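Final report, Chapter 2: Outcomes

The project's central promise was a pipeline that accepts a single protein chain and returns its three-dimensional structure in a standardized token representation, suitable for archiving and comparison. That pipeline is now operational. To close this chapter, we reproduce one record exactly as it appears in the project archive, with the input sequence first and the structure output second.
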Amino acid sequence: MGKERCTSLIAIGLVTMSVASATQAQTATGSTTTPVSRPFVPGERLSYDVFFGAIKVGTGSMEVRGIDTVRGRPAYHTTFRLNGGIPFYKVDDTFESWFTTDSLASLRFNQDQNEGTKERQHRYEIYPERRTYDDLSDQEPEQPSVADPLDDGSFVYFVRTVPLEVGKTYEFQRYFKPDRNPVTIRVLRRERVKVPAGTFDAVVIQPVIKTKGVFSESGHAELWISDDDRHMIVQMKSQLSFGSLDLYLTKVDRP
């Protein structure tokens, strides 16, 4: 397997993990203080090690940086970071999301990707009220979106707000780019899992989306979400034709 293919799958796997999980919509107060019902809080930071087979190839983190105001609406500001790679091919990616504190609908999404010799940036402004989004990185007009849109970051926080019922399959049309829908979630089982951050009772889900690689139908990826009041992603495993791509929670920081 080529170096670029390996590290690209690592990046795609971790980022797509964020768009691969959702259940039913939940609403809460829209105040600028943290909603009581949320399992995540400003200041929370989850850290991960990433392995390709038995080899550690990078680290990742998910962080709730705070609550900002976007176009007059209170919004969670979250970041996802990925660093690592293999010799002669490094990855340094940052993904930022801003989504409303009530419905968790996406308002803004930034992608900064530095992979090998390639650099890519995208700045999205997302407008739930008119079901459109604008990629500020190009000169194209606003594009159609969906009701209550979710981006790569807001999806993973959205799923943490609602319990998942074992044995059920969910299908969703909420990703902000309509051609990526639907996202299908199969809730497989409950299981106890040990990772560097500790031992967790978890709900195991299998996400399937319209993409190649880790979360395609042939990727057989599974995610472990802690079966407690925090609903954290504690582990990811996938079996691909050329090997396994795994992610493990190493540290939890909460205020």
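Archive annotation: Residues 3-19 form the longest helix (17 residues).
This record, like all others produced under the grant, will remain available to the consortium after the project formally closes.
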